């Protein structure tokens, strides 16, 4: 698993930045994606993929323990679609 600290360390090493500077860059990227998602805007990172907000409708489900029918509220979720370059890199 790669963490944000590991990503920041790699950026710092490859671009001659301090770890604090690279952590700020990584945090800014994630903050921009979060802000865009919260406002319902799609975020696209060329060569990596797209983050898109999708609406899930209200639905009924069953409690497996009691069998009672419950309603699950409508919600929004963040979906990721990988770019072709990322798919190709994964399937080499």
UniProtKB/TrEMBL annotation:
Alphabetical list of CDD domains matching this protein: HU_IHF (cd00591)
Superkingdom, natural source: Bacteria
Keyword Zinc-finger among record annotations: no
MF (Gene Ontology): DNA binding; structural constituent of chromatin
Biological processes per GO annotation: chromosome condensation
Gene3D superfamilies on file: IHF-like DNA-binding proteins
Keyword vocabulary terms for this entry: DNA condensation, DNA-binding, Plasmid
Pfam families, per the entry: Bac_DNA_binding
Recorded family membership: Belongs to the bacterial histone-like protein family.
Protein name: DNA-binding protein HU-beta
Organism field: Rhizobium favelukesii
Gene: hupT1
């Amino acid at each position: 698993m790669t963490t944000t600290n590991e990503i920041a360390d790699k950026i710092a090493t490859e671009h001659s930045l301090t770890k604090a500077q690279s952590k700020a860059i990584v945090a800014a990227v994630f903050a921009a994606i979060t802000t865009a998602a919260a406002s319902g805007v799609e975020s696209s990172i060329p060569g990596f993929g797209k983050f898109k907000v999708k609406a899930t409708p209200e639905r009924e489900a069953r409690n497996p323990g009691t069998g009672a029918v419950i309603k699950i509220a409508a919600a929004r979720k963040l979906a990721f679609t990988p770019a072709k370059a990322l798919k190709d890199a994964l399937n080499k």
